[in-house]
Amino acid sequence: MKTILSSKVSDGSLVIVDELKALEPKAKILKAMIDKNGWSSPLFIGGEALDQNFCKASKNLPYVNVLPQQGANVLSILKCKTLVLTKDAVHHLEARLG
């Protein structure tokens, strides 16, 4: 996992955000944010509990995946083109990987 995360950092496809929140469960709004940031096939890894509006919005976008920090796994990270982590997820991964 450390190697994959290092690879994402070196090729500029790892993004860290404060939180994953959506005011409304609208796929159109989430898609606009993804397009604006130039993220391709993103995997969002959030904190322990995920925002339900964000999760609902992502379900209608076939190329977008969302996982809680406990669900972070090598295969999902390998499949995505852009990895978006919350600060909580980063702290969890640091502790998990030692």
Description:
The chain is an alpha/beta fold. It has one domain (2-97): 3-Layer(aba) Sandwich (Ribosomal Protein L4, Chain: A), CATH 3.40.1370.10. It is built from five helices and four strands. It has a four-stranded parallel beta sheet. The longest helix has 11 residues, at 27-37. The termini are close together. 23% of the residues are buried.
Task: Provide a count of the helices.
Answer: 5
What is the H/E string?
HEHEHEHEH
CATH topology: Ribosomal Protein L4, Chain: A
The major β-sheet equals: 4 strands, parallel
* Helix/strand class: alpha/beta
Query: Overall 3D geometry?
Result: globular
Domain tally: 1
The count of β-strands is 4
Q: Low-confidence parts, pLDDT < 50 over ≥5 residues?
A: none
What would you give as the CATH superfamily? Ribosomal protein L4/L1
Structure described in brief:
This protein has 5 helices and 4 strands, in the order H-E-H-E-H-E-H-E-H. It has a 4-stranded parallel beta sheet. Helices cover 46% and strands 16% of the residues.
Can you give keywords for this protein?
globular, alpha/beta, 5 helices, Ribosomal Protein L4, Chain: A, 98 residues, four-stranded parallel beta sheet, 4 strands
List the helices and strands and how they pair.
Layout: H1 2-10, E1 14-17, H2 27-37, E2 42-45, H3 52-59, E3 65-67, H4 74-79, E4 82-86, H5 87-97
Parallel strand pairs: 1-4, 2-3, 2-4
